[in-house]
């Protein structure tokens, strides 16, 4: 099956599965079927308010996203109302309701649960408020007009590739080294209510499956299906507890070999690493700690990579993502359709949402400077300290 055919089927299936218990979507031509403003006339940014709904402040990644979107919108002349929902679905629903009531002209939404906002989006559609889905696709509704994100399947490919590199199965150029293993690994996935989880997982498992089939990789727990390995709300604590349970059940509490862990997010990685260190696997990769992947280039994990503790992360430059969301808002404000570079892949179960996809990079210790410091994303001092200034 091709990548696109899998993604189209997976997105529809994922949306259908997670719609259980969610509010049914209402029909319609989409929230942005007419330009913003009374009667559909063009308005300037100075006349408009953009509501920005972010999922949580428990992740430094989302704090950075919120700040980047807010500052770039304000630079473009928009008034901005930014809200974080603390990973609580009713809170996010209420925040979006309030944004609509207070007269938001455009909404940028990074959803907690991509199926839980149907009522809010219908209210926005009824007032011709365009909806921009930010990094997480909103499922099961016609009322989403544009999607800005990274190539999430490719992010998963990069996660799987980084694990194989850390194990020595692939070299730095992605070429096979001839290493036959077997290497014992365990697999983690993201939150089951986040649409991106299925894309990350499929990209990673497609990359790892040939090595699982050949015996180069083994999963002693036998947990190789996405629904067995998800981590609700991307929780570091939940990941740590699952890793502890895996070690107890399959690795003699830490006395038996474990070579690597596929992790889809840096917070999950840090929970995994804590469990491994507590079980006696060593303090760094050099002295026996299993290699662990990640995502988001969070500063705490970048320091761990620099110190040889975490092997890799995936860098998704959220400044560029914010810029693309702001460009979409500016297009809607001008009564135009935002630029899309993918109009086939992201089917939310009700429509294929026009999308703009950005590229990502694998970060390992050797390229922290070139990818993160030279680009101004983090400073050398922040990497050394492991915290943002």
From TrEMBL:
Cellular-component GO terms for this entry: outer membrane-bounded periplasmic space
Where is it mostly found?
other
User: Where would you find this protein in the cell?
Assistant: Cell envelope
Q: Which organism is it from?
A: Zhihengliuella flava
Signal sequence, start to end: 1-24
Membrane-traversing stretches: none
Keywords tagged on the record: Signal, Sugar transport, Transport
- Decide whether keyword Signal is in the record: yes
The residue ranges of the Periplasmic binding protein domain are 50-337
NCBIfam families named among the record's database cross-references: ChvE
Task: Name the InterPro entries for this protein.
Answer: Bact_Solute-Bind_Prot2, ChvE-like, Peripla_BP_I, SBP_2_dom, Thiolase_AS
Q: What is the name attached to this protein's record? A: Multiple sugar transport system substrate-binding protein
